[in-house]
């Protein structure tokens, strides 16, 4: 009889350990899923920065306080066309996010502008609300 009691005591422990393991696995799975969703959500903002890297480095393009790119004085027409395309993509993104969040699109643009200003490389031109250009 004592042998049976001992076995029954071990059994729940083993089952409990197995359940703890599966709980950890599912938590890890949820964490991975949440991380992947964050990356997918942030990808459009990072993907849009790439085409402007060369014009920014050449001083032909900058970033405005409202989350849109702007051509610097003397920028060639192909850079201006690129900026218009990027701004159209950003406008669509800001409008979509604003609709999802229930806030104005310009508020979303300003949030993105702060993130863009943090992430652009040193030497990038930034246009402030006061109309003054500063170099990061």
* End-to-end CA span: 79 Å
Shape call: globular
Low-confidence runs: none
Percent of sequence in beta strands: 5-15%
The number of domains is 1
Q: What is the average per-residue confidence, as pLDDT, rounded to a whole number?
A: 77
Element pattern in H and E: HHEEHHEE
Largest sheet: 4 strands, mixed
Keywords: Signal
Protein name: DUF1318 domain-containing protein
Organism: Zavarzinia compransoris
Pfam families: DUF1318
What does the model show?
- This protein has a four-stranded mixed β-sheet with strand order 2-1-3-4.
- It has one domain.
- By secondary structure, it is α+β, with helices and mostly antiparallel strands.
- Helix 3 crosses helix 4.
- It starts with a helix and ends with a strand.
- It is 68% helix and 10% strand.
- Keywords: Signal.
- This is DUF1318 domain-containing protein.
- InterPro entries: YdbL.
Helix and strand layout, with pairings?
Elements: H1 2-49, H2 53-57, E1 61-64, E2 69-71, H3 77-101, H4 105-119, E3 125-127, E4 133-135
Parallel strand pairs: 1-3
Antiparallel strand pairs: 1-2, 3-4
Helix pairs in contact: 3-4
Structure in a nutshell:
This protein is an alpha+beta fold. It contains four helices and four strands.
Feature tags:
single chain; about 140 residues; alpha+beta; four-stranded mixed beta sheet; 4 helices; 4 strands; globular
């Amino acid at each position: 009889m004592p042998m049976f009691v001992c076995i029954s005591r071990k059994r729940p422990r083993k089952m409990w350990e197995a359940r703890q393991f599966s709980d950890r696995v599912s938590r890890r799975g949820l964490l991975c899923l949440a991380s992947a969703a964050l990356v997918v959500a942030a990808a459009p903002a990072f993907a849009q920065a790439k085409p402007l890297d060369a014009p920014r480095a050449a001083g032909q393009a900058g970033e405005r306080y409202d989350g849109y790119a702007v051509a610097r004085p003397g920028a060639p027409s192909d850079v201006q066309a690129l900026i218009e395309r990027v701004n159209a993509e950003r406008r669509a993104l800001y409008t979509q996010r604003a609709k999802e969040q229930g806030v104005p699109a310009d508020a979303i643009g300003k949030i993105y502008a702060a993130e863009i200003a943090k992430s652009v490389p040193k030497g990038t031109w930034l246009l402030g609300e006061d109309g003054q250009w500063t170099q990061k």
